[in-house]
Design brief:
Elements lengths: L1 H23 L14
Length: 38
């Protein structure tokens, strides 16, 4: 039951975040570490 409630909260927050990005179109910063390329 706890995992289900945590999952529901995460999905809700993820949806809110997606809506925020669609409305405001903020700049994004991408970071790629060289450790993963070696």
């Amino acid at each position: 039951a706890l995992a289900h409630s945590v999952r529901d909260r995460l999905i809700e927050r993820w949806h809110d975040t997606q809506q925020y990005f669609k409305r405001n179109d903020p700049k994004r910063v991408y970071f790629l570490s060289l450790e993963f390329l070696m």
